[in-house]
Amino acid sequence: MNNISPRQLEVFVQIALLGSVRAAAERLYLTQPAASMALAELERQLDAPLFARERGRLRLNPRGRELLPLAQELLERHAEFGRRGREDGAALVGELRIGASNTVGNYRVGELLGAFVRAQPQVAIRLRVANTDAIAAAMLDHSLDLGCVEGPVTHPQLEVRPWRDDTLVVCAPPDHPLARKRGLRPADFAGARWVMREPGSATRATSERVLSQLPPGETVLELDQIEAIKQAVIAGLGIACLPQVAVTDALATGRLKALKTPFLDLRRKLSMLIHRQKYRGALLDAFIEQAGLGR
């Protein structure tokens, strides 16, 4: 008969998320030998290893990947049992791991997290900012509880729920020839020098869709941060498609100019990602309701 403890499951989950016994021990306020012993005992009871050792890091093997979401669910149910069992109902506590793509994580984090953090001050939020492809991948390997992205994601294991509307604008420095020209037409963009986001970014995908509607130009820079692209455009290195929310300050101070392009569709939808197979405990349910995504 197995006698697997919540502590052993916690050690397993944290090693899976952080990649090392040392990091897991620090997160759980354990000594490294204690964390190692907990993992060894868990693997002994399961009669199978859960990790492959690769260059000093621990990576989940197929059995570990299969068991990780179940271990996470058991821990969440254990915490929920304790909370509901108290006469006072107890405030929500615990940790939510949320992923956000660049636009959301850098410019809409208040909209994303503010109301929940104010309502649930005992809950720790760990926010990871990356591009849309990276957030979707992290959702699939259960290292995130919920994702918020700006690009289309199609995967059978991920549910996509609309969250906000978003708009991009084509930006140029004020002294750029296109910024001084009235009544812009698609033909005016022939040979334009573009500063782009990296592949895998939703802003890159939108920019490529826009460029397909214009005469051929030249990509002169690829950068993985919106702020870096803003500075490159301000410095006169090219023009770019950028989220309107990200350039409000630069437009207001005259460092950038938004080009009038009514012939381009620059709208897109920001969405929440939820893993269909993930257990939705009280924490995740509360966040989803607070974000107005309940069904």
From TrEMBL:
Coiled coil spans: none
Domain of life: Bacteria
SUPFAM superfamilies: Periplasmic binding protein-like II (SSF53850), Winged helix' DNA-binding domain (SSF46785)
Entry keyword annotation includes Cell wall biogenesis/degradation: no
InterPro entries membership: LysR_HTH_N, LysR_subst-bd, WH-like_DNA-bd_sf, WH_DNA-bd_sf
Residues spanning the membrane: none
Domain HTH lysR-type as annotated: residue spans: 4-61
Record's keyword terms, sorted: DNA-binding, Transcription, Transcription regulation
One of the Pfam families matching this protein, by short name: HTH_1
UniProt record similarity statement: Belongs to the LysR transcriptional regulatory family.
Stored PANTHER family: HTH-TYPE TRANSCRIPTIONAL REGULATOR, LYSR FAMILY TRANSCRIPTIONAL REGULATOR
Protein name: LysR family transcriptional regulator
